[in-house]
UniProtKB/TrEMBL annotation:
<dbReference type="InterPro" id="IPR032710">
    <property type="entry name" value="NTF2-like_dom_sf"/>
</dbReference>
<feature type="region of interest" description="Disordered">
    <location>
        <begin position="38"/>
        <end position="65"/>
    </location>
</feature>
<feature type="compositionally biased region" description="Basic and acidic residues">
    <location>
        <begin position="41"/>
        <end position="64"/>
    </location>
</feature>
<protein>
    <recommendedName>
        <fullName>SnoaL-like domain-containing protein</fullName>
    </recommendedName>
</protein>
Length: 224
């Protein structure tokens, strides 16, 4: 009768078997550690969002601007981006005027109130696209036209509009800033068939501007 001897449980625990088992465990551990290291290295090497190109595009855009608009456009973008600072209003003459279909402002203080109010009303605002055309009649004087698209959020609602901004510049300072929503001329006594209707529109814009000026502390610059 043939007898087959099987290894006893104690023999499996002999040094050769223990060595083999330990080797397998070490190999598995090394593989896990290697994978962990590779994952960490891969995470470090994963490129983050590249802002360099965005900055370069902005610089290229500014390089394309003419001499009349190069020092003005960056500040205009800040104003429409709800991030106006006192220095952004240095592009305006003291007696400058601003007007859009909603309000009108006379003088630098009222213009400050108009743009400072944006961050109080809107949760988000920016000029998403724009192209600039300028007509310099003499050094530091002329007209700048900004064909643009504006994006706003107010009370959870999104507002997107096209606009044509017309800036009249004298001696490097804006003397008139007109924002034509929908690229349509503002309604006034000169642009409508019934002058009385135009006068009413002018009066409403002026009232809105004065109320905004009052609510914004008469154009006081924010402390921060």
């Amino acid at each position: 009768m043939l007898h087959v001897s099987l290894p006893s449980p104690t023999s499996i625990l002999n040094p050769p078997f223990r060595q083999f088992r330990v080797s397998v465990l070490l190999l598995k551990k090394n593989n896990i550690m290697a994978q962990t290291v590779n994952d960490k290295v891969g995470a470090k090497e994963k490129p983050s969002e590249d802002n360099t190109n965005k900055g370069q595009e902005g610089n290229d855009h500014e390089k394309q601007l003419g001499t009349l608009s190069r020092n003005i456009i960056p500040h205009i973008l800040n104003l429409y981006g709800c991030s106006a600072k006192a220095r952004d209003f240095e592009i305006y003459a003291p007696n400058a005027t601003f007007e859009d279909p909603f309000m009108s402002a006379n003088g630098l203080k009222q213009i400050k109130s108009a743009f400072y109010s944006l961050s109080k009303i809107l949760s988000e605002g920016k000029m998403v696209e724009y192209s600039v055309q300028e007509n310099e009649t003499s050094p530091g004087c002329g007209e700048i036209l900004i064909d643009n698209k504006q994006h706003y959020k107010v009370i959870g609602k999104t507002i997107d509009l096209t606009s044509l901004i017309a800036l009249q510049v004298e001696h490097g300072k804006i003397i008139r800033h007109e924002d034509r929503w929908g690229k349509v001329a503002l309604k006034n006594r000169h642009t409508v068939s019934v002058p009385l209707v135009g006068r009413v529109a002018e009066g409403l814009r002026k009232c809105t501007g004065l109320i905004t000026h009052l609510m914004m502390g008469f154009g006081k610059d924010p402390t921060s």
